[in-house]
């Protein structure tokens, strides 16, 4: 993500103190694109948090009522009430330090993380690259995060007065062998349970060695069952609070693997699935000078591939299990394609980098019926 724009609908903007959103965002993006991608990312989060502390972020972005832009359709699913259909994908606010600020941009839900049991710095820099000609990003961040305790400390400040739904994305530490990975997920699940509205188990990042191997049907089924058993314990200990469990899968799975996972999701009654994470394929960006960089590719080159996985999973999975469409949502049309393929919600990340917060309100304002888990 790059920066927040200002709209002419804001009284302060009309006074002439700020320029309108169409004027400002391209300028902000040019300035931030002059910086390396990771520095721009941190600078943007800092600016957002500062504007949010002043109480002016919502007015500057023209997002309407926080988490409920004008024309937004409410969504009831997984036992939760989502103010609108668009959320922030995991990976942008890895530390949980800007939840309220993203809510002020109009997001109905914000997914933070990925969080691991222990803090870890992630992979060596540089590890984030823009492919501007393709409206794409390659990242190999490697689950850089402050760990459970650090994230909870950040949330104590950043979540205050946030009216949307909070998802927490969890994973394993890089040095935890796969045969012990479920232990890490259970530690994270227990650690974040009280703070989360839902929890996503990330099995699909290409940037932690061996992580995607956990997507095989047997291991995934075992993980889901153990998380569900732990939830029974935690629900009893925390006054009956039920936290939905969501699984995030990769776009690079074969059709056979997607169908096998659909069987696991049907059998276990998982609460929801996110399709998809980033891709390791480079065909869509072949010939670009950065195409050879290791990591996950996101943005426009991922759109069609991710939506195809969503469509197949929707065909094979019980209609009562909702899908959150993520990956290559660069426009309202992309979001509509995912809704048409069977998504109940969508998430954006790279689209925010290239299009700015206007994208959030454009998607949230798409016409549509009141959605439920069966929609």
Mind explaining what this structure looks like?
- The protein is α/β, with parallel strands linked by helices.
- The protein contains 13 helices and 14 strands.
- It has helices at residues 11-14, 21-33, 37-53, 57-61, 99-104, 147-158, 181-192, 217-237, 255-268, 303-316, 332-341, 350-355, 358-364; strands at 75-77, 80-82, 86-88, 109-115, 128-131, 136-139, 165-170, 198-202, 245-249, 272-275, 296-299, 323-326, 345-348, 371-372.
- An eight-stranded parallel β-barrel has the order 3-4-7-8-9-10-12-13, surrounded by six helices. The chain has a three-stranded mixed β-sheet with strand order 2-1-14, with no helix packed on it. A three-stranded antiparallel β-sheet has the order 5-6-11, with no helix packed on it.
- The radius of gyration is 19 Å and the shape is globular.
- The two termini are 30 Å apart.
